[in-house]
Amino acid sequence: EEAIFLRKKITLLRAFSLLIGSMVGSGIFISPKGVLQNSGSVGFSLVVWFSCGLLSMFGALCYAELGTRITKSGGHYIYILETLGPLPSFLFLWAEFFAIRPANSAVVSLAFGRYMLEPFFAPCAAPVPAVKLVSLLGYYMVLTLNSWSVTWSARLQTALSVVKLLALALIIVPGMMLLAQGHTEHFQDAFDRQSLVLDKLPLAFYAGMFAYSGWFQTSFVREELVKPERNIPLAVIVSVITVIVGYMLTNVSYYTVLGTQDVLASPAVAVSFVQRAFKSLISVVPVLVALSCFGTMNGGIFTFSRTLFVASREGQWPPLFSMIHIRRHTPLPAVMLMFPLVTAMVCIGDIYHLLNFFSFSRWLFIGLATLGLIVHRHRHPELHSPFKVPLFVPVSFTIICLFTVAMSFYSDPVNISIGCTMVLSGFPVYYLIIHRQMSDRCRNLFSSFLFSILSDYLTHKLQLLLEVVQQEIKTY
């Protein structure tokens, strides 16, 4: 009886909640270990955290301008497509689907499972199969909700954003109280240059930027935003400043209570912090952290499904994934597509290897997107934009992103090479399938073929998972 399209249901408050809910997730609770490990000292790790926040603000401002210049949803994909052309945009889509997004979702899911089970097994570590099983259950719950309703997904994101800020407050307040009492012993000789290894710094930045990642999420749902010209810049600036302040205070609280060896030895830094500083909350904080990760999973599924939806609409992905549920008004096929890959990565993956694996591809294409902003300005000087950043912001952000990506080959050549290979594998796919003008029949065959492969792949992985779970039950 009426047109089927994605409705404008994302208000300013929901946009702010989407950004906060996506940024404040598993990162601040698992990344301090990775940042400290690769920066070498407390002082340098705090410098890395602040630098990552400043860099995120630069990127967020660039994306805010792109969001006012380009009116389509799709985030990185649509910005690269509109500014640099179809080949780099398809390579991003290829890497995002097969590497970046499933690895990112797997990292957050594993953090969710670990923190959810930590109170039940403390002081011992939770069994790995149990962590993976709970991680998958959490991911499937979010998947179901996003398939069911856009409104309820947005409401959940708003509620969990409050939970995330509460979780940070429960870490910041006792840490600041102890700092005020004079507990500064862990900040002695904070800038120890002997422990600084320059070729490891890109990995420290990857871990820090992972914690801040999410500042670009409004660009994925641009068509569903109410008053996007006003709300995108406003939501981006307020949310990123809020997160920078929160993250710096949280890290200072960590180091006030925990020494460098404690942070490096802890599989769940927030739990170790509570065990040492605030034992009365030993069962509360891990649950709040798990709910925080749950919100990040929700935001990730909510936004990436729009990328697949837009790519399908642009003709670079099977047409099935541009379809919308008639009654629910959700991009149901696009939401469900990540199901098999995330399941596989959760079953076989390790958090820190996955983090380095997907960070290379992610920051390569984010750097290309901001490069596209410079190109777009040069090509269309007559185009009026309601929000415009100084030119040095996109230039400096692009240079830092691409330099960090290049340096990471020296820091972790194995995982970075795998990520690079994943990107390059999209070249033959593009020229064999996308570049050539295929008939509708060929496109339909391609869609059916892809659906068949994914169905078989999912069935196989679920059977393996069930066998592992049954074996672990017998063992215990």
TrEMBL record:
Entry-linked InterPro entries: AA/rel_permease1 (IPR002293), AminoAcid_Transporter (IPR050598)
Compartment annotation: Membrane
Main location: membrane
Alphabetical keyword list: Membrane, Transmembrane, Transmembrane helix
Residue intervals passing through the bilayer: 12-30, 42-64, 76-100, 120-142, 162-183, 203-221, 233-257, 277-297, 332-354, 360-377, 389-410, 416-434
Domain of life according to the entry: Eukaryota
Membrane topology (UniProt): Multi-pass membrane protein
Gene Ontology MF: a single term: L-amino acid transmembrane transporter activity
Pfam families in UniProt: AA_permease_2 (PF13520)
GO cellular component: a single term: membrane
Stated name of the protein: XCT protein
Lineage per the UniProt record: Eukaryota, Metazoa, Chordata, Craniata, Vertebrata
Record gene name: Slc7a11_1
